[in-house]
Amino acid sequence: MIGAGIAGLTAAYSLAENTPDCKNKIHVYEKESLPCMFSSSRNAAIFRTYESDPTLSILVKNSYRQLLKIEKTSGQLMDRRGLLIDPLELDYYEDSFINQYPDLSEIKSNLKQMNFNDGYFFNGIMVKENGVIDIHAYQNFLLKYLSKRGIVFHYNTCIDDIEIQSDKIIRIHDANGFGINLSENDMVVNAAGSWAMDLISKARVKTPPVMTFKRHLFFLRSKTEHQFSNINLPVLWDEKRDVYIRYESNGFLATHCDQRETFAGDYSSDEKEVDRFLKSILSVFPFLKDHHISRYWACLRTFSLDQIPVVGFDPFIKNLFWVAGLGGRGMTISPGLIPEIQKLTLTQGLNHVKQPNPYSPIRFY
Length: 365
Ligand SMILES: Cc1cc2nc3c(=O)[nH]c(=O)nc-3n(C[C@H](O)[C@H](O)[C@H](O)COP(=O)(O)OP(=O)(O)OC[C@H]3O[C@@H](n4cnc5c(N)ncnc54)[C@H](O)[C@@H]3O)c2cc1C
Hints:
By secondary structure, the chain is of the alpha+beta class. It has helices at residues 6-17, 54-74, 94-98, 135-148, 196-201, 272-284, 330-348, and strands spanning 27-29, 46-47, 78-79, 83-86, 109-115, 121-127, 131-133, 152-154, 159-165, 168-174, 179-181, 188-190, 210-222, 235-238, 243-248, 251-255, 260-262, 291-304, 310-313, 320-324. It binds flavin-adenine dinucleotide.
């Protein structure tokens, strides 16, 4: 596994669950000294099951079912405060999919208007059992499970090069030139987030297109203490004007959903976004005028060309499996990817992909 963000942890969990004796058989290589140092801990952590894209729509609903299953062991992982969203497009799969499973009834949306002070109101649809995932609790659950199952983590190990022979990776090298030999049945999982494409293109082979875009998040503090502290506010998302906010201890986490293409690892924040953000957010949520920005940061979202995650065997390198391009939904979809990864690795083994699935990298060729 290359990368210990949410994609790498999910892939390791999926494989470990399917492998009775996995002790010392799964190795996770992470260039940092800890897991989830980048996008997987600097995001807004919103768990959202309302999606207009058919593939994502089904994936996020399956993800909710999977989260319910995990929570039976881990304890509650989501603050179910609800999501009140004014969507850009309808989720046409909502009814047909949800009606098949009684445990999904709570993620069926209803029209709702929310009234604030000063006559301000927000119209949208409410999805009750959405909210904010506790990303640290979720990561801890995955890490604990993996360490109990004997999965080996190699921190401070940047995989710098992969060596290919006869369409198979035979060796990977870390940045110090140390080589790790692969045996006949080993596979490599590319879960390197925004670095995923660079990692493979270094070996001069074709790669599925996964591109990196920067987005800023802002934390707004109230000048008038505890204005909203006794209100159970859902996440508020105006998709038509592309802004969302969520309440958090006397402040709001917010973004104007900026999106600028950049290169892997570029986490520098851009001062120019502050004005754009303020203009945008105050036009939609005027009650935030007495808040100030206490801090802001940039984070990366990595998308494939069709914005669907890239999960499956590489069409050109037989023992390379992709879990990348999780885009702006990585925290929400990662539980839903567990059965997908298990299905793909079990049914296809190290063989070439003959039957593309919606996530398969082969769709780009
Ligand atoms: C502003 C913002 C808000 C977001 N909000 C939400 C949200 O509300 N809800 C939601 O569901 N999703 C959200 N997301 C999306 C989510 O954060 C991402 O989809 C997810 O974190 C991607 O995880 P990843 O594991 O693919 O990437 P990363 O977290 O970047 O992990 C990749 C890992 O690979 C390691 N790595 C890279 N190259 C190498 C190498 N060569 N050798 C060893 N290790 C390597 C890196 O160090 C890193 O740890 C948001 C994203 C952004 C930017």
